[in-house]
Amino acid sequence: MLVVFEGLILSFWLLLICVVGIAKDGPVGLVVFYEQEVQDKVVELGLITKEKIKHVSIITSLALFLPMLTAIPLTVFFYNGVSGFLDGFIQLAGIYLIAGLFDRIFIDWWWVGHTRAWIIPGTEEFMPYIHGKTLAGKWIGTLIGFPIVAAILAWVMQLVG
């Protein structure tokens, strides 16, 4: 049950990053999550600069990945009291999969795909924003990549602990 709770906390963290990221400038604020052709169009429309996109990319990457790669493993191994590789892997994979499925289903499919919240005026020609190779890559990253990351982190934490 603790793993589910921690997975929901990580999901909430992702949601919070998205909400804060689009609060000021709308979806242009997180255009970094869009395909390159959408980013190029938004720059062409004068809504953002390439430099600002790079800056936002660094900030969002740090905000997303630092907690995932540090706080979550530390929580699993020191708060949850896991000491072995297998238990650590299972808990980390569970947390990451919950957050990944939240991202794929709630954020990508519903919020981006079925609401107007993420539509950037002037880029409607690129809708749906998440499709094809990107969509497949996100699902592969969630279902295969996250367990691989969990295995690596469980191994590292076992060595450290």
Number of helices: 5
| Sequence of secondary-structure elements | HHHHH
**Spans where pLDDT lies below 50 across 5 or more residues:** none
| Structural class by sheet pairing and helices | mainly alpha
Shape: elongated
- Overall pLDDT score: 97
- The helix content is over 70%
Question: Can you describe what's shown?
Answer:
It is elongated, with a radius of gyration of 17 Å. 26% of the residues are buried. It has 161 residues and is mainly α. The chain has helices spanning 2-23, 36-44, 50-79, 85-114, 132-160. The chain is built from 5 helices and no strands.
Which helices and strands, and how do they pair?
Blueprint: H1 2-23, H2 36-44, H3 50-79, H4 85-114, H5 132-160
Structural descriptors:
mainly alpha; single chain; 161 residues; 5 helices; elongated
